[in-house]
Design brief:
With about 350 residues, the protein is mainly beta. The protein has one helix and 27 strands. It has one helix at about 310, and strands at about 5, 15, 15-20, 25-30, 30-35, 95-100, 100-105, 145-150, 155, 165-170, 175, 190, 200-205, 215-220, 225, 225-235, 235-240, 245-250, 255, 270-275, 280, 285-290, 295, 300-305, 325, 345, 350-354. A hairpin with a 2-residue loop joins β6 (about 95-100) and β7.
Length: about 350
C-alpha cells in the first residue's frame, strides 16, 4: 500500500498518471496513483496513538488483542463456548452450577461450604442413614456407635474388657458390665460342653474297650487348641499301656491326638491332656473329642446330671449328636476320619479345651 492522500475535486497529476476522480481518499503505489479513490469517513480519521472514541464498530477478538478492558465497556452476553456465562449476571446470586454446559445458580449456604475430605463440624443437620451409611474412622476395633436419645446423636462407645456384656444399666445407660454367669474363660478354658457345676459326682464308666465315644463342643470363634480336659470321677483299672487316648477332630477330620493316658486314668481327678504337636487351629463352629480306652475297666468320667440319650440329643440327627458312639476296634491310633455315630450315647461326658 502506498501513501494516502485526501482529495476533493482536484485532479493533480503524479508523474504521467492522473489522480483518481471524485471525492475520498486516494492512494499512491510505486510513485503512481491507484486507479480508484476510497470513500472518506464521516467522522475523524483514526490514528494508532491518538486519544479517540470509536463508536458503531464491530471488532474481531480473533485478530485484535484487548488490554485493560473495563467491564463497563462491555454490553450483551458472552457465549458459553467463548468462555462466558451465556446469560446476564446482573441479578444472579448463589453458587454457580454447570450441568452439560448449562449454567444455574444454587442458593449459597450461610456457613462454610463442606468438602469431602475437609475436617469440619456439621451442625443442625438431619442425615438419612438409609442413604448415608455411617463409618467409624477412629477408635479401636470393636468400638460401637450408639444413639444417645438424651442428646439426639450417635456417640462412640469404646470396646469393653474381655468377656463383659453390653447391657442397659439401672440408670438406662448402655454400659459394658460384668456377666452374671460363668463361662469357660473364667476357668482358664477356651470352650466346654457344659458348666462344671452341673456335673454329677459319680461319673459314668467308659464301658466298651476299643470304642470311640464322641463328644461335640461348640466353638464360638477361631482359636488354637493345645489341651483336652476331663475329670476322672472313678479310676480305671488294669488299663493297657499305649492304648488309652483322646483325639481332636473338626469336620470329622483328625487334627491331633494326646499321648497315652493309661497311667493318668488309673487315678481320679482333673486331667489336662496335651495334644501331641499342638496347638491346632480350629475355626468357629463345632469340634469333636474322641475318647477310648483298652484294658479291664475303663475310668468313670464326669458327666452331667442327665444320662438319657433321647433327651441329651433331642432334635439332633446321629451325625450331629452331641454324644455318640463311633468307631470300634481302636487301639493305638485314632482314625483319620470319624465315621457317623452308629448310636446316640446315653452318657453326657464332660470335656473342655484350652
Amino acid at each position: 500500500m502506498g501513501t494516502h492522500l485526501a482529495c476533493t475535486t482536484l485532479t493533480p497529476t503524479l508523474g504521467t498518471t492522473p489522480a483518481p476522480t471524485g471525492s475520498g481518499f486516494a492512494t499512491v503505489t510505486a510513485g503512481a496513483w491507484d486507479a480508484a479513490a476510497r470513500a472518506a469517513p464521516v467522522g475523524a480519521v483514526v490514528g494508532i496513538s491518538d486519544t479517540q472514541t470509536l463508536t458503531n464498530k464491530t471488532i474481531s477478538g480473533a485478530s485484535n488483542t484487548f488490554a485493560a478492558l473495563p467491564t463497563s465497556a462491555l454490553t450483551g452476553t458472552v457465549a458459553v463456548a467463548n468462555g462466558g456465562f451465556g446469560q446476564s449476571m446482573a441479578a444472579a446470586a448463589g453458587i454457580v452450577k454447570w450441568t452439560a454446559g448449562v449454567l444455574a445458580f444454587v442458593t449459597a449456604p450461610a456457613g462454610a461450604i463442606v468438602g469431602t475430605t475437609d475436617t469440619q463440624t456439621l451442625t443442625n443437620k438431619t442425615i438419612d442413614i438409609a442413604s448415608n451409611p455411617l463409618t467409624v474412622t477412629s477408635g479401636a476395633t470393636g468400638d460401637l456407635a450408639l444413639y444417645n436419645s438424651a442428646t439426639g446423636r450417635f456417640e462412640r462407645k469404646a470396646i469393653g474388657a474381655s468377656h463383659k456384656q453390653l447391657r442397659v444399666s439401672a440408670a438406662g445407660a448402655v454400659e459394658w458390665l460384668p456377666r452374671p454367669d460363668w463361662i469357660p474363660a473364667d476357668h482358664g478354658l477356651l470352650a466346654w460342653n457344659g458348666d462344671v457345676y452341673c456335673l454329677a459326682s459319680a461319673g459314668s464308666t467308659l464301658a466298651a474297650a476299643g470304642t470311640i465315644y464322641r463328644v461335640r463342643l461348640h466353638i464360638p470363634e477361631a482359636m488354637s487348641i493345645t489341651n483336652i480336659w476331663c475329670y476322672v470321677a472313678v479310676a480305671g483299672s488294669t488299663l493297657t499301656a499305649g492304648q488309652c487316648f483322646c483325639a481332636l477332630y473338626q469336620g470329622n477330620t483328625k487334627l491331633g491326638q494326646t499321648a497315652d493316658q493309661a497311667a493318668a486314668w488309673v487315678s481320679a481327678g482333673v486331667k489336662t491332656m496335651a495334644l501331641t504337636g499342638g496347638p491346632f487351629a480350629v475355626t468357629a463352629g463345632d469340634i469333636d473329642i474322641a475318647v477310648w480306652f483298652n484294658g479291664t475297666t475303663g475310668p468313670a468320667l464326669a458327666t452331667g446330671g442327665q444320662n438319657a440319650a433321647t433327651i441329651m440329643n433331642v432334635g439332633l440327627s446321629l451325625a450331629n449328636s452331641r454324644w455318640g458312639v463311633c468307631d470300634t476296634g481302636i487301639t493305638t491310633t485314632a482314625p483319620t476320619n470319624l465315621i457317623t455315630p452308629s448310636a446316640a450315647l446315653g452318657r453326657s461326658y464332660w470335656f473342655g479345651v484350652s
